[in-house]
Amino acid sequence: MPAARPAGTPRIAIVGSGFAGIGMAICLKRMGIASFAIYEAAHDVGGTWRDNVYPGAACDIPSHLYSFSFEPNPSWTRTFASQSEILAYLQHCADKYGLAPFIRFGARVSAARFDDATRVWQLDIVRGGSRERVEADIVIAANGALSRPALPAIPGIERFAGKLFHSAAWDHDYALEGKTVAVIGTGASAIQFVPRIQPRVAQLHLFQRTPPWIMPRPDRPISERAQRLFRRFPMSQRLLRHALYWQHEARAVAFVSHPRLMKGPTAFSLAYLARRVPDAHLREKLTPDYRFGCKRVLLSSDYYPALAQPNVELVTTAIGEIATDGIVTTDGRHRAVDAIVCATGFQVNDVGAPFTVIGANGADLDARWRRDGPEAYLGTSVAGFPNFFMIVGPNTGLGHNSMVYMIESQIDYIADCLRTLARRGARTMTVTDAAQRAFNERLQHTLHRSVWQTGCRSWYLSASGKNTALWPGLSFVFKHRTRRVRVRDYSFA
Ligand code: NAP
Asked: What is the mean pLDDT of the chain?
């Protein structure tokens, strides 16, 4: 933590340097606060856009919307930016705003403990083989919701003797050319890399548990001329961003309160499937039997055509076990494979805190979340945890619009928390139990009527069916709600 700081300026520890951590750090610098450090376990910034390097990794939200509002990028080369372009954008942000001196790379926060006597957080940092302890007045967990890859709990997975990796830890040193490859999962990641690896492998067995709803992805290059226009007339890019925002925002109405508005997109998606997959048997396997929007609607224009290729088999019989040399389905059929790619998503629900977090009076965030499910107030504060703030905490995910918008809303909110602390001359603020309970009761009530609770299995829901991942509705309502701290919802000390 930087030592020199004006009296009264809090020491702030940010955990993670993805969109959330970088955005928060830029905000602090703009507020004139330099007494902060970003602890990053990896050796580069970028978070999910640094880690997910599978072939074809790209954003499914348009580039002009998937960026900080204060740092537009007129040079996006495609309407849906690739992973490498988004990573380069985040590296650019870190450079432009001079964040390098504030980032501790290779430093993993293993624990944060609030000391009741001094009202200060003690952080345990693991760096290589060594450990250090640092103090902070404020902890901002910006470690991302989709950062813990989930390997499937399939019997025998540990004894597979071929190559096995998760899509979020792609092994580019392993040549897929000429190999027989199994892919488990047909979610957002799989539909992006399957079309890329299909031409390279000899045989692809794609194991699908649930078919996703898919819409075409209108991805195309952004011409040099358009990029020049955005550079010369920044207003043109701002207008485009606004148009994209409202176009996406309109979908929330259907997701949350007017499911009948789904009829049009449902018919469109089925017609698209029919157009792209002429084989009736394959089409039947790819037709979802649950409500459009219940799971994340995926965008792809090359997934269906890839599945129609002769070297692809779509397997819909459940996996029974993994053998040393392949996969055995519950009908007893054994498929020998050289490699298995698990595109099986991330641990989001029914998991504890991302690192040990001990709040006031020994409150243990991990134990609490494992018992009751992840829960926070505005996805940012947690009762019992003074001066502990999260970005992309529980129920801040979106199924319909840009997460960067939510991240910026939370950053602005945390900035207002810091201003509120300074204005009141307080050292700590803690959301009250009552405020957190009331907030979550309302939230769950709204979620109850949403399309996400209509009976499908998704990472939005815990095993008990509680949605702890998504914000129920319009993102501008969240922005409005996070504009100012409601001081009556917090206790100050
Ligand atoms: P995902 O969408 O959760 O998909 C996981 C897939 O694995 C599902 O098809 C799931 O089947 C299957 N699966 C899980 N466990 C299995 C098991 N034991 N046996 C068989 N199949 C199993 O995960 P993801 O593709 O990594 O995406 C996660 C999230 O990351 C997305 O929803 C999105 O928010 C984000 N993402 C975004 C982008 C982007 O373009 N911006 C790209 C990639 C990911 P079921 O459906 O039956 O559960």
From this structure: 95
